[in-house]
Amino acid sequence: MVQSYALFCAALLLLGGTLGDRLGRKRIFAVGIGLFTLASAGAALSMSLSQLVVSRSIQGVGAALLIPQSLAILSAAFPGRERASAIGAWSAWTSVFAALGPVVGGLLIQASSWRWIFLLNLPLAMWILLLLPKVRESNTELSTLSLATFDLRGTFLNTLGLGSLVYSLSFGPQLGWTNIRVVLSMVAGVSLIGAFLYSQRQNEHAMMPLSLFSNRRFLAVNLLTFFLYGSLGVAFYIVPFFSIQIKHLSPFATGAAFLPCIAVMFLFSSRIGRISSELGERSFLVVGAVCGAGGLVLFGLSSHRQGYIASLLPGMLLLGVGITIALSPLANVVMSSVPDEEAAIASAVNNSISRIAGLVILSIATIFLSHGFDRSLRAQLRVSPLPSQMKSQIYADHALMTAVRVPSDFGNEAERQGRRIVDRAFTNGYSAVMYAAGLGMLLAALPVIFWWGESSQELETIPASLNADLKSYP
Question: Are residues 188 and 207 in the same domain?
Fold first, then answer.
């Protein structure tokens, strides 16, 4: 069910951005909201798992249409410094709702029914549709959609390529990386995306102009996006798992554990957006990545401590500071690095990269976690005084990690020791993953430090300034 949404959303994001730039961002945004609303109602009324999967898939299509337009519309609606504050607020609300989703969902499920998770979308969507007529169209140079100018080949290759890649990365951890479906999907995805990129070089009406990446700033900020969002994806997936399995927090308490991080983002994102625009986004992106890396490393360093305040809160606060400092300037740089007529496709590219990054780096992290758990478990069992037969039974299930069955046939004390060994092995693996994720977030800063060019707005001001100088020249 979760994968169906992610699959369609990621596969169609570039198409959504292209349609917005071609046919009007406001129009495509409205279509996306409409589809998302209808699909939410369908999900809430689903009577079977298959109906729910179909509804979630349609939700993914709607999201792919509306996500690229939201930032492009906002960027065009606010000039200069106001744009930075608006994008900062957009980043804050986006992050807050994304983080609060699991908390609110858990409360709704406990208090009533899972159906309310989808019904909650309906009044919000209706409110947006009522406000939408007041928003002016951000793209004044609209074109008609014809087979002669629409990149059908690129659309086909990109959609199938991203869909195949997302499928393999989503199901690889469950089915195993040697599973034939996973392997074939991975090979097909990489091949189709390669063919898509080649087709864009040959197409006058390419859906994703490769000239976007000739802008060093746009390229640098998207490389930063890959490592930043990939590392965040690791934290937002593995930290809750660790909190539930090792710290024995409830699902609701685990979601609430992220509230300090959310509070920092909500309170300061808009201000950071404005200040970074005045002082220069580059230093904020670097400092944000470094602070975020520090937060991830703190998760690893404090993993053996007891209690939320000692084991999780320091990392949450520092990670929140890092995200807040980095994300608002990031979105602003993406929008300012490209011409206005390519804003939606630029937003779609950046969103696609962030989603693929989360899947790619999380897949690597789960392999890393499994390896770290296995190595620590073997080392502890080797020196443990537990009976040899009990050690063999524990290690036989090592692939299950925290779900390893500790035999109770050897006495209560031996069972407790065995469980402590398993928990310690997972904690050691978790710490190693957090250190690696911190390193990944540090890597996010490197493209910004060493590969930074002018934005499209800065480039556009150069001819005007030169012209003024020429006129004043005696």
Answer: no
Given a contact cutoff of 8 angstroms between Cβ atoms, the answer to whether 317 and 264 are in contact is yes
Displacement of CA 46 from its chain's centroid (Å): 28
Number of structural domains, the chain? 3
- Average the pLDDT over 404-419 and give the result: 87
Spatial distance between the Cα atoms of 159 and 13, rounded to a whole number of angstroms: 9
Residues with Cβ within 8 Å of 362's Cβ and at least 6 positions away in sequence, in order, are 230, 233, 234, 237
Q: Does 255 share its domain with 268?
A: yes
Single-letter amino acid, residue 252 = F
The C-alpha atoms of residue 1 and residue 255 are separated, in whole angstroms, by: 21
Q: pTM score, two decimals?
A: 0.82
HSE toward the beta carbon, residue 299, CA cutoff 13 A: 35
pLDDT in tens, 372-381: 999 999 999 9
CA distance 415 to 411: 6
Rounded Cα distance between 384 and 407, Å, is: 15
Same domain assignment for residues 197 and 209: no
Tell whether 349 is covered by a domain. Answer: yes
Q: Which structural domain range is residue 158 located in?
A: 154-202
